[in-house]
Every structure is written in structure tokens, then in C-alpha cells.
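note to self — DONT lose this again. spent like an hour looking for the file last time. sequence + predicted structure for the chain T wanted, 34 res
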Amino acid sequence: MKIGIVGLPNVGKSTLFNALTRAGALAANYPFAT
């Protein structure tokens, strides 16, 4: 199974991904960081 998280820039996609997977994706507080 493959899923994707889509949304506008700087709305918390990486934070949600980190919370769901316990991974360490970069989540910075500036546009287009990830």
C-alpha cells in the first residue's frame, strides 16, 4: 500500500508524517523547507 500527504506549503505535512511514522523528516519553519 502506498499513500501520500498533499497540501499547501508550510501547513504541517512533515510534522504529521513524523507523528504517524516516528520518522525524522526535516520540519523547519520557513516556506518550501521540505
